[in-house]
Each structure stands twice: as structure tokens, then as C-alpha cells.
Amino acid sequence: MAALALHRAAALILVAFGTASHAQVSFRGLGTLTSDQHSFVAGISPDGSLPLGRAMAYNADGSTSGRAVRWTGAGIEILESTPPYWDASAGAASNGGQVAVGYGQIGNGGPGTTTRAFRTIGGITTHLPGFQPADITAARDITPDGSIIVGSSGVVPCTWTGDGFPVSLPVTDDAVAAGASSISADGSRLVGTFRRASNTLGAYLWIDRQTPQEIPLPISQPQNVSLQISLDGRTVIGTAFQSVSPTAIGFTWSQSGGLAPLPAGFSPLACSADASLIGGLTLSQHATLLRDGQLIDVESLLTSLGIDHAGWSLTSVNAISADGLTIGGTGRHRYGANPGDIRTEGWVAVIPGPSGIAVFIGIGVPVLSSRRRNASRGLETV
Questions:
Q1: How far apart are the first and last CA of the chain?
Q2: Residue 52 pLDDT class (50, 70, 90 cuts)
Q3: How far apart are CA 68 and CA 88, in angstroms?
Q4: 121-149: average pLDDT
Q5: What are the structural domains of the chain?
Q6: How far is CA 86 from the centre of its chain?
Q7: What is the arrangement of strands in the sheet containing 87-93, beginning at the earlier edge strand?
Q8: Given a cut of 80, is residue 293 above it in pLDDT?
């Protein structure tokens, strides 16, 4: 019976995607800096041309740490800086990947160790300054045209523009620390989190840089909150983390529709510009998409489309292009014949567009009247 149900689900997927030719769909592993190390996709440019993230590498003392990387047509490229990062990740890029941003640790725990935001333009990576020289800075997102970067400097949410200097965002009176994590395409709407003196977390929406309004959360005292806003600025997606089961509660919020829960155990991490396609992972660590009230297991989808992904176990969807045609994430990849030849590795897939979709059927979990959301960025913690 289970096999028959899976066969029917696969058949429905093939019908739903029937308008897309096999030439249009694909899957590829992105590789690593060395064969026995790992890589992670954290974001993708809105046009889907450039995935970026973090790749592990050996240091001179034999230890390993992360390098901020992007994957171009020529392969994997480290985003170098001066002084160099000990551990770093790239998280977002403009269209075409002309401008990439992220942050990382400079130093290895000794005197002078700090965290610095960076911006890469072309092949040149520079650190973004904070309000004070000693401020820890983090760059988390960028507009598609590359003109506005959002993040934090010390405990202050901020943006950086062409001159490279931070500009603070207003906060409410009860906030003792805050950070911005995501921005709409036109730069008018931003989201982020803040911490109160009581050590509880809240969520912000800024409109035109005015005093933020608080976004309601599905639980009262989350341990952590991840927030992103769609490129069209209409929908916020997020996950609130708590110490009791279920540990992650996914949700969407909009000014018109309010707070809406996502299926139990599903954590949203990315989505298309109009939020019609959401990506993330389940509690069982399966890369999953959400569209039209249905959760879709990405591996099942690729198999149904005849896309070869042998040797892979896909664990999360971390990035989605603006048009929803390119998705990126992380998985476990068997790269050799030996039992231990398994590594965590980034991947990218091209899937059919919404015009060819009747219903997504994958793992068959229905949604509770979900709303929608946008392109991939990272966890926000203050």
C-alpha cells in the first residue's frame, strides 16, 4: 500500500511538472575545497546565477575552519580579505553576484579576536566598519541591485550603502540590543530581532526606516528567532526556537493576514520573491519545499523528474532564486567507495516553474492555510 501511494505521488508530480522539459531541470553538487572536508550553501543571488556560503579548509596548524566562498562558472572561490578571516561565511549577493556580503571571525581566540562584516565587489573583499572601532559587525542581506546592506554593529541594527559607513535603524524603548536580518528588493522594508532587558526576544518590521512595529511570534519566550522578508516586501517568514518539543515552530506573517503557522516540524529558510515557494527542512532533516498547501520532499521530486542525485541525502533547502526556479541547499554526499567517504556538501537544482505546477505532492503533509515568503538568508541572533 505504501509503495502504491508513493507511486501515485510520483505520478502526480510528473503530471504537475509536465510542462517543463528535462533540459530545463538539473541537479549538481557544488564541491568542496578538499575532498575530505565540507561545504554549505547559505544563499543565492536573486537571479539564481551565484550560490555562496561556507567551505571548510585546513589551516597551517592542521586544524580546520570555514572560508567564505562563492561558486562561479570556474568553480569554488574563496572571498579573501586583509587581515584574513579565521572562520567566515558569505550569506547573500546581488543579482549576478557582483556584490556579496557576509561576516566572519578574525583571529583564533587570542587578543584582538573579533567578528567583522565584509563586502566583496568583483574580486575585492573589504571589511565594513562599525560605529565604534571595537564593534562586532555582521552583514546579513543585500538588495538585488547591491546598493543597501543590512546587519548590525555592536548592539545596533544598521544598514551600509555605497560609502561603506553604517547608518543606524531606530528601535523601541524596551530594546537593549537588535539586529537587521533581511530587506525587500526596493529597500523600503526590513526585518530583524531585538532583545529586551528581561532577556526575551522580539521581532521587528521597519518601513521606510521609521520606528519599527513589533511582529507577533507564535510563542511568548523563544530561545532564538530567524526572520526573513520576501523581496516584494509583503510577507515575513520565520522560525521561533524553544527548548521544549517541538524545538522549531515555523510561521509566516503579513500586515494583511497576520500570523499563520506552518506545518508542524517544518522550518522555513528560503523562498521565492513573491513567497509562493518556500524552502526549508523538517525535523527529520529532509530538504523540503512548500507550495499550494503541500510539503514536497526534494529528493522525491528530483527522482520523479528523472534527475540523477545518486549518493546524496538532501537535508535542507537554504536558498531560492527570486523566480523560484533555482534552489540551493546542503546534503550528505558519498564521494568515494570507502565507508567513511561521506561529506556535507552544498548543492543546487533547477526545477520547473509555477506555470507547470498543478499540485506539489511529496511527503503528503497538508498545510494549515499557510501564507507566503522569499529569498534565502541566515539565522538572526542578538
A1: 49
A2: very high
A3: 5
A4: 96
A5: 2-356 (2.120.10.30)
A6: 22
A7: 87-93, 99-106, 114-121, 124-127
A8: no
